[in-house]
Amino acid sequence: MQVDLMDGKIRLNPRDTKNNEARVICLEGELLEAINFQRVLRDQKFPKCPWVFFGETGERIKDFRGS
Questions:
Q1: 28 pLDDT above the threshold of 90
Q2: Are 45 and 55 spatial neighbours (Cβ–Cβ below 8 Å)?
Q3: Strand order of the sheet with strand 23-26?
Q4: Contact, 61 vs 46, CB < 8 A?
Q5: Residue 8: left if φ>0, alpha if ψ -120 to 50, beta else—which one?
Q6: Greatest distance between any 2 Cα atoms in the chain
Q7: What is the mean pLDDT of residues 19-44?
Q8: Above pLDDT 70, what percent of the chain?
Q9: DSSP string, 3-20
Q10: pLDDT at 66
Q11: Distance CA 36, CA 20 (A)
């Protein structure tokens, strides 16, 4: 998966999709704003964290139901 916030797109490789087809997800409006906000927050609190969405200590969120 490749995220390009400047272009506002997420590109999924075929191996990352259920039907093995590449996809492009366009980010715009509130979704793009939320992801940019989360990225800024991450860069301030946990600059070495590779995840855009993270737990209270910067760890990876593996299951959103437990977050």
A1: yes
A2: no
A3: 2-4, 9-12, 23-26
A4: no
A5: left
A6: 37
A7: 94
A8: 96
A9: EETTTTEEEE-GGGSTTS
A10: 65
A11: 28
Distance CA 13, CA 25 (A): 12
Q: Which two tokens stand for residue 61?
A: 């969120």
Amino acid at 47: P
What's the sign of the alpha-carbon dihedral 23, 26, 30, 32?
Answer: positive
pLDDT score of 3:
84
pLDDT at 43: 94
C-alpha 18/C-alpha 2 separation (Å) is 17
In this structure, the dihedral spanned by the alpha carbons of residues 27, 30, 32 and 38, taken in order and rounded to 10 degrees, is: -140
Task: For residue range 36-59, list pLDDT tens digits in order.
Answer: 999 999 999 999 999 888 888 999
N- to C-terminal Cα separation, the chain: 23
